[in-house]
Design brief:
The complex is a heterodimer of chains A (172) and B (283). Chain A contains seven helices and two strands; from the N terminus they run βαααααααβ. Chain A is mainly alpha-helical. Chain A has a two-stranded antiparallel ribbon with strand order 1-2. Chain A starts with a strand and ends with a strand. Chain B is of the alpha+beta class. Chain B is built from five helices and 15 strands. A six-stranded antiparallel beta barrel of chain B has the order 2-3-6-5-4-15. Chain B has a six-stranded antiparallel β-barrel with strand order 7-8-9-14-13-10. The longest helix of chain B has 26 residues. The radius of gyration of chain B is 21 Å and the shape is globular. The chains are: A mainly alpha (172), B alpha+beta (283). The interface between A and B is large, with 49 and 44 residues.
Chain lengths: 172, 283
């Protein structure tokens, strides 16, 4: 499906902005312990799936900047997470050969969320705010978080993508 | 520009933003942006917090057979008794010293107006909440936040706007406070010194428990002892006033190779139960 559609950049930017807003105001309410929805990553992965490299990276970066500006987290973490999510999504799209859209989004979001969680851990430690033991964090933080967000991407990824499609291209 | 070049540039810019944020201080541009956004988003957060409250109540009902209101009343009563007992223990043990310190008067606190907890904020590695009072109500950064009269639940961070303030909860990894362990009533007759049950630094360990660090092995701390602020946090005296109840000692343990006792503390108030709090603006 991804190869045959053209994504509207404006709609993709709107989706990323909405995801950043949700990440700032809704995500803290839905976070239990170390596990919660990562709306920014989900939004970036879906929004940039059919875009060019530079567009994808810039959308991820500015989505992260918006998230950090609206929340009280460590500034710089979300932009880096957004850039990684954009890069992973584009690269995964290039390598994709088979499998449905839902599976594609679930796998991509899983990798991007794992990267984002580890990034948050290192950023927290670097800022001197203390960090949990990495093994415990991997077991009870990253893995459940990855599974939850992959499930979320599997359920809503395809539906979100349909909102972004500007026009369908014909197969040649 | 190739994708790889853009990726490297954006990563460097992100790291630069992170470095600036950590180094700039509280009045820097990035902190100011966050403060402004916090004020702008206050109605949205309040609305979402209000919308989420029925779900919280529903989950409480599912988790408890007892009626939620009745349970809350009983918890408030129990907290009141606990506060009173801790206060009595503190006064009994430190009577003479406090009398000298306060010129014979009871410590008096100036409280902010009652504040509601609007919403949790921050990421997965932080435990912070937003309350609906700010500098307009006399709230300043780094002031103690209590439930009831003197049960400490956290302190304000530097994210204080005219109408909101962010509270760092005692269960956050970044929180630390000097505390003293006080015996419950009836156990001061052995002529032991003021600090015989131990003093230390309250903070949350990443193993998941709230504990008191740096308590001497000779300390007589026991299960059921009260934990209250000592008025010191390391070398920073009077970051918190003395005598604010934090919780009770859940367990104590030590091994031969340990340099300090391991003290686990049960907080007097659970973070999930927070609804209305007050900030101690002066003492």
């Amino acid at each position: 499906m991804l190869e045959s559609v053209q994504i509207s950049v404006a709609r993709a930017a709107l989706l990323v902005a909405l995801a950043a807003l949700l990440e700032s105001v809704l995500s803290p309410l839905l976070t239990f312990g170390w596990v919660g929805p990562r709306f920014l990553i989900l939004g970036v992965v879906v929004a940039v799936a059919g875009l060019r490299d530079l567009q994808a990276l810039l959308l991820g970066f500015f989505g992260g900047v918006l998230t950090d500006a609206l929340s009280s987290g460590l500034f710089g973490t979300a932009p880096l997470g957004g850039v990684f999510a954009g890069a992973i999504s584009v690269r995964a799209g290039d390598m994709r050969r088979k499998g449905g859209t839902r599976i594609f989004f679930a796998q991509t979001v899983a990798v991007a969320v794992a990267a984002y969680d580890l990034l948050t851990l290192f950023a927290t430690a670097l800022a001197g705010q203390g960090s949990p033991p990495i093994v415990g964090y991997l077991a009870s933080g990253v893995i459940p978080d990855v599974l939850l967000n992959a499930l979320l991407a599997y359920l809503v990824g395809g539906w979100l993508l349909r909102l972004l499609i500007a026009k369908e291209e014909e197969w040649t | 520009m190739s994708g790889l070049t853009a990726l490297i540039i954006l990563c460097v810019v992100s790291l630069a933003l992170f470095t600036i944020y950590v180094k700039e201080g509280d009045s820097g541009p990035l902190h100011t942006v966050q403060l402004g956004a916090s004020e702008v988003l206050r109605p949205v957060r309040g609305l979402l917090g209000f919308a989420a409250s029925p779900f919280s109540a529903a989950s409480e009902r599912v988790g408890n057979v007892m009626d939620v209101e009745e349970k809350r009343e009983l918890e408030e009563k129990a907290l009141g008794y606990e506060e009173g007992a801790a206060e009595a223990a503190r006064l009994r043990q430190e009577n003479e010293r406090l009398r000298q310190l306060l010129n014979g008067q009871r410590p008096s606190f100036t409280y902010s107006p009652l504040a509601s907890v609007v919403t949790p904020v921050g990421g997965q590695l932080t435990k912070r909440v937003k309350i609906n009072i700010g500098t307009n109500d006399g709230v300043q950064p780094e002031q103690p936040v209590v439930v009831g009269n003197n049960t400490l639940i956290g302190r304000t961070t530097n994210q204080v706007t005219p109408n909101t303030a962010e509270v760092l909860l005692i269960t956050d990894q970044s929180f630390a406070a000097g505390v003293r362990i006080l015996p419950p009533s009836g156990s001061e007759d052995d002529g032991s010194s003021d600090n015989s049950h131990g003093e230390g630094l309250l903070r949350t360990n990443w193993e998941g428990y709230l504990g008191v660090d740096y308590v001497d092995l000779s300390a007589e701390a026991e299960q059921g002892d009260f934990v209250a602020t000592s008025g010191q946090a390391g070398e920073r005296e009077l970051l918190f006033p003395s005598g604010l109840l934090v919780g009770t000692v859940e367990s104590t343990s030590s091994q031969d190779i340990d340099q300090y006792k391991k003290i686990v503390v049960t907080p007097a108030v659970k973070a999930n139960d927070l609804q209305e709090v007050r900030v101690i603006s002066d003492w």
